[in-house]
Amino acid sequence: MEGVIDHTMRELLTELGGVDRCVTEFLRVSHELLPARVFHRICPELRRGGHTPSGVPVYLQLLGGNPQLVAENAARGAELGAPGIDLNFGCPAKTVNRSDGGSIILREPERVHAIVAATRRALPETTPLSVKIRLGFDDANQFDDIVAAIATAAPSELVIHARTRADGYRPPAYWRQIARAGEQCDLPRVANGEIWSVEDAHRARLEANTNDVMLGRGVLCRPDLPRLLRASDEGRDRAALHFEDIRALLLSYLTMTLEHYDRRYATNPIKQWLGYLRHYYPQAAALFAEVKRLRDADELRQALQHNAQPRSSLAA
């Protein structure tokens, strides 16, 4: 979710409730032990104990192919207060893969093991280490070997995006493959991929034989999906957000981006988010068409304020 779920979006989404944990955008590790300012830039929550303002822990996500460098940077992240470290072996982007990062490393299970093992040794015993993978690179033929390689390095949990790199983000996600990992190791497993609704989450859990799910694009399309899922788990009914509630969220997000980023670029995150929201809210598609050429933040605010409800209505 690079360039999408930054600290402002994490703050906004966790305020809605239902989220147990966040993961930062990936921090690329390639040549050196990074200075503290780089960690703080990608994870400002480190200055508040590694949690969002609403108290949700934020794991620091690292991506790289050099075991020692990844381990050293993970240790520095823990020293700076990260409540957990996440290793990314799932990113399918060609630019990332060409730079020896993300899912391309899945072609070498022994190197996956080396990176995870070095990182686990470098971290304090009390610092959780999660590892995110796909089912494989070109295909899932090495999936069992990848899982075994990770299990022997003893991380805290395994997050599995239920598609190969070759699958990209094309449906479906093969959640049943995640259950296979449970037959090989005792690591807690988290299911990821194609979870767009409460019903999807329940089905993913059933097929993957796990209680935990990770939400990516689904939470951007439906910001209240985590709390709707939490209510469902607890046997409670909870009303979904209406689009007027989404307008209020967009206005809050614009205010936050103006506080943290150059005003010249403050309109871009709003348009990007509308691009996700329009997959679930038809009104977002019309609003996106209205604002997509706007560059002035005040003009964008005026467009968003049309019929918007007060932010307090979101607490209902």
Structure explained in plain terms:
The protein has 316 residues and is of the alpha/beta class. It folds into 2 domains: 7-233, Alpha-Beta Barrel (TIM Barrel), CATH 3.20.20; 243-315, Bacteriocin As-48, Chain A, CATH 1.20.225. It is 44% helix and 10% strand. It is built from 14 helices and 8 strands. The chain has helices at residues 7-16, 36-42, 67-79, 94-98, 109-122, 143-151, 176-184, 198-208, 217-221, 225-233, 243-260, 267-277, 282-291, 297-305; strands at residues 22-23, 27-28, 58-63, 85-89, 129-134, 157-161, 189-192, 212-214. Strands 1, 2, 3, 4, 5, 6, 7 and 8 form an 8-stranded parallel β-sheet that branches. Helix 3 (67-79) packs parallel to helix 5, helix 11 runs antiparallel to helix 14 (297-305) and helix 12 (267-277) packs antiparallel against helix 13. It is globular, with a radius of gyration of 20 Å. The protein starts with 6 loop residues before the first helix and ends in an 11-residue tail after the last helix. The mean pLDDT is 94.
